Amino acid sequence: MQILLLLILVIFIGCNNDSVDDEIINGGSKLFVTLQDLDYLAIIRASDLAVLDTIKIDLDEMDMMGMNEAPHDVAVDNLNNYFFTTAMMGGHVGMYSTDDNQFISSYPIAQMPALLSLDKVNMKLYVSRGMTGNGIETNVIYELSYANNMLELINEWPVLFEYAHGIHFDETSGNVFVVSKTNDYIAKINPNEPFSGSNPMLVSMDIETTTNPTIPVNRLRPIHISAKYPYMFITCSAGEWMANQESYDEINGQVQMWNMEDMNLLATAEFDVYSRPWHIEVSPIEDKIFIALAGGPENSDSGVACLEFNNFNNEYTLNEVWKNTSSEYGTMHGITVEYDCDGNYFVYATGRTDGTIYKFDPDTGDEISRTNLAPSGNAATGGIDIDSSCCDASCD
Question: Among residues 93, 223, 271, 297, which one has the fewest Cβ atoms lying within 10 Å of its Cβ?
């Protein structure tokens, strides 16, 4: 089945050779999407969702059995012209050039590298790990450098909680923020100071229920982080929670808004119990955030949503602007936002169970277009990021 899917991808790209040439000549925004089941990463033209290229992810040089690498997340450094991906099952982080999509370097992460966050100015990459159990330790954040055109380990940051998964580097404060998917805690790391009893700083996301960072609670189940200084936004997938040994409580999926400096919770927006808010992205030009809602096959449709955040007289609010869900959407996973010097402003999301990338209107939530990246089968699209023209520079 995997060979058949790869042949379809090759044919699909071959039919778009002319558009690839146009892309090279005319430039424009490009989307990078992981195809986790196929061990590939797809590069998509943002304007019409045409497939420009696919990159084989094969980072484990010691693998002689052809095991699945499972590329999970992707991060694009459009300031220095690199992109990175995590091979969860292959145990490596890969570094590539955005100029020619060629492999440059890899670094071995002991167990299941998961999510990525970039410090583009200092050319550093922060890596979390995913999935607990079977002896897998997930309480360490890796700090890698790529300043020398290769991936090198700088530091390992231990946190007290397991399943340190969602991760975000904030350029303004210089801090790294991490959430535990099982323990409902946030870690605030200052990478410019040595590890100590107060670095990382640990904060409970639910002080009435969670008071010990070492104990898995599994109530809020935080997933992902995005931020616009001084505010940080965290998705919590929540759902059914066993409060005791006799019954389940239903906890609404939610987005929490935090102050990065004093680490106070400012506001919360709730969705339904089975909405499962997943990845999240802040708008670069508005006080809005966009959320992928994974949903559930029996209880809640998948889709995307938009929230607006406000501060009036120190009263903080998160209000729903729109929500677009449908039974046609396949477990929305990754999400990113395009804004470039030509005024293009769009939201893109990936469906984990349908191998499809979707394009949405950021003002209304209406779907604009979609492209299936595996017309015959499931490509398990995962992480997504964008290389937009002049998005890290002022537009003249």
Answer: 297
In 3D space, the residue among 262, 101, 125, 237 whose CA is nearest the CA of residue 179 turns out to be 237
| H-helix or E-strand spanning residue 368 | strand 367-372
DSSP conformation class of 84: E
> Are the beta carbons of 350 and 334 closer than 8 angstroms?
yes
Give the number of other Cβ atoms within 10 Å of residue 72's Cβ.
Answer: 24
Name all domains of the chain by residue range, CATH numbers in brackets. Answer: 2-387 (2.130.10.10)
Place of tokens 């922060």: 126
Give the 3-state secondary structure of residue 26. helix
* pTM, rounded to two decimals: 0.91
Positive or negative, the Cα torsion across 34, 38, 43, 49?
negative
pLDDT confidence band for 148 (50 / 70 / 90): very high
State how far the Cα of 129 lies from the Cα of 27, in Å rounded to an integer.
34
Ramachandran bin of 221, using left for φ above 0, alpha for ψ from -120 to 50, beta for the remaining angles: left
Please say whether the dihedral angle defined by the alpha carbons of residues 154, 158, 159 and 163, taken in this order, is positive or negative.
positive
Q: Which residues contact 175 (CB under 8 A, 6 or more apart)?
A: 169, 188, 189, 190, 191, 260
